[in-house]
Amino acid sequence: MKHLLPRLPYAQDALAPAMSKETLEYHYGKHLQTYIDNLNKMIPGTPYEDMTLEEIVKKADGGIFNNAAQTWNHTFFFETLTPRPAGIPPRLAEKLSESFGSVEAFKEEFSKASIGIFGSGWAWLAQDPAGRLKILAESGAGNPLTKGMKPLLTLDVWEHAYYIDYRNRRADFVKAWWDLVDWKKVEGRLQ
Q1: Residue ranges of the domains in the chain?
Q2: pTM (2 d.p.)
Q3: Per-residue pLDDT for the chain (191 aa), expressed as one digit of tens each?
Q4: Measured between alpha carbons, how far is residue 119 from residues 27, 46, 122, 178 in Å?
Q5: Counting Cβ atoms within 10 Å, is residue 51 exposed (0-12), middle (13-18) or buried (19+)?
Q6: DSSP string, 53-108
Q7: Residue 1 contacts by C-beta under 8 Å, 6 or more apart in sequence?
Q8: Which residues partner with 153 through β-bridges?
Q9: Whole-angstrom Cα distance, residue 61 to residue 57?
Q10: Which one of 2, 76, 96, 123 counts the least CB within 10 Å of its CB?
């Protein structure tokens, strides 16, 4: 199965100024494309050749895992952004409050986890098999799917996600990112 660059659900300049067109040209157009190209070169003749991206993420390791997970993570990340953010739907707000005390407490904890990742990685909001919401800070290409959890929301804190617009100010990137989250998509992923 050949994996392809997914289409963005918005124009590359639609997220500015929080995320510039130049950032998307590099982050989406070059970084994500490279992970996809690498994965497509690595899987022919392997057990992963005909698997979906999610299956590869759950079963592979090493370079195949890294490129598959980075492809999956980036696709998920870009699909969760919107140039027209709306408020958090009541059902999701209730679930976040139930799990973290309040929506604001969730945002604070998620921001802290995102900023605190040493080096490159991903911050996740995920739902465990019992339906509880958890925040995970994963280094490298880490993904909750490998822990049997359902991803709901992610933030890419690899430097290529923010360096053009924010240089080394990761905290400023995290703060701006909150205004790009498509909360309806996040709610739609709840079990």
Answers
A1: 19-191
A2: 0.97
A3: 899 999 999 999 999 999 999 999 999 999 999 999 999 999 999 999 999 999 999 999 999 999 999 999 999 999 999 999 999 999 999 999 999 999 999 999 999 999 999 999 999 999 999 999 999 999 999 999 999 999 999 999 999 999 999 999 999 999 999 999 999 999 999 98
A4: 17, 31, 10, 21
A5: middle
A6: HHHHHHH--HHHHHHHHHHHHHHHHHHTB-SS--PPPHHHHHHHHHHHSSHHHHHH
A7: 49, 50, 51, 52
A8: 125
A9: 8
A10: 2
Q: Which two tokens stand for residue 148?
A: 């049997």
Residue with tokens 């997970």: 69
